[in-house]
Amino acid sequence: MLEIINLSKTYGTKKALDNINFKLENGIYGLLGPNGAGKSTLMNIITENLSADQGKILWNGQENTKLGVKYREILGYMPQQQGLYNGFTGKRFLNYIAVLKDIPKEKIQEDILKVAKKVNLQDDLNTKIGMYSGGMKQRLLIASCIIGNPQLLIFDEPTAGLDPKERVRVKNLLKELAEDKIIIIATHIVPDIENIAKEIIILKKGVLIEKSNPEELIKKYTEQGDLEDVYMSIFGNEEDERP
Q1: Bridge partners of 20?
Q2: CB of 25 within 8 A of CB of 178?
Q3: Chain-wide mean pLDDT for the chain?
Q4: Is 230 within a domain?
Q5: Domain, as residue range, for 184
Q6: C-alpha angle 9/14/18, rounded to 5°?
Q7: Pairing mode, strands 75-78 and 207-212
Q8: Which residues have CB under 8 Å from 37's CB, separation 6+?
Q9: In the predicted structure, residue 240 carries a pLDDT above the cut 70
Q10: Which residues contact 147 (CB under 8 A, 6 or more apart)?
Q11: Does residue 129 belong to any structural domain of this protein?
């Protein structure tokens, strides 16, 4: 279980997160909100890339800051920006990530092949990343997130740049992984989470305004519609980073 308790963060005079509280158990959770809603700040605090001004994060009842290395072992994070080394092969990059995650040396090659197959990159492991397409790089980042079998996975726009066939593959993979993991997906491709998310978390100007399953949100905000209509009903024509 992941618990977020009274989490707040301020940049200067702007409150990026304002007293956020929620609990998550195994399953997929969509994280929605326009530019400036606080999604990136929340993800960066959960992944310990950023410190909160107040509040705490509990993993199975223990504060993440007191778990140290053990917390990082259960965590997998895929950022939106593709910070990849073009001179590395896919295999070398995944090996590098595996070492950072302290995966036992004797398991690394097995784990690399396992995650490469899951994202359909098993035939491209020896190709330099500089030769990868944007979609292949995206899949490599997904593989780097799930290697080592972490229990808490956080994805920032995991299907961006993927063709429709690969988007379906990734959605199916996430559904499979969610059986025994907590998965948070921040995305602007709303249909990609509508049919797989256990609940949708909606942030607006740093405030948690909704945490509910898609069916309840659709019933609340639209007479007939989908999750995209819910998003538009809440945010309308606000500045939005979606394509």
Answers
A1: 7
A2: no
A3: 92
A4: yes
A5: 2-74+151-235
A6: 40
A7: unpaired
A8: 203, 204, 205, 206
A9: no
A10: 76, 94, 97, 98, 101, 103, 111, 112, 115
A11: no
Alpha carbon distance 76, 14 (integer Å)? 29
Cα 174 from chain centre: 10
Kindly report the CATH number assigned to the domain that includes residue 65.
3.40.50.300
Amino acid identity of 154?
Answer: I
Between CA 154 and CA 225, with CA 33 as vertex, the angle to 5 degrees is: 110
Residue 171 phi/psi, 5-degree rounding, is -60, -40
pLDDT attached to residue 71? 92
Instruction: List the structure tokens of 166.
Output: 């690969």
Find tokens 């890339």 and name the residue. 49
Residue 64's nearest CA partner among 127, 154, 135 is 154
The overall pTM is greater than 0.90: yes
Tokens 């405030």 sit on residue: 207
Q: Strand 2-11 relative to strand 54-59: parallel, antiparallel, unpaired?
A: antiparallel
133 located within any domain: no
Query: Could you give the number of structural domains in the chain?
Result: 1
Residue 148 is encoded by which pair of tokens?
């080592």
Encode pLDDT of 30-88 as tens digits. Answer: 999 998 899 999 999 999 999 999 999 999 999 999 998 889 889 999 988 667 899 99
Residue 146, φ and ψ in degrees, nearest 5: -95, -10
14 residue type, one letter: K
Q: Let me know: does 121 contact 139? Beta carbons within 8 Å.
A: yes
d(CA 152, CA 111): 17
Q: Is 190 within a domain?
A: yes
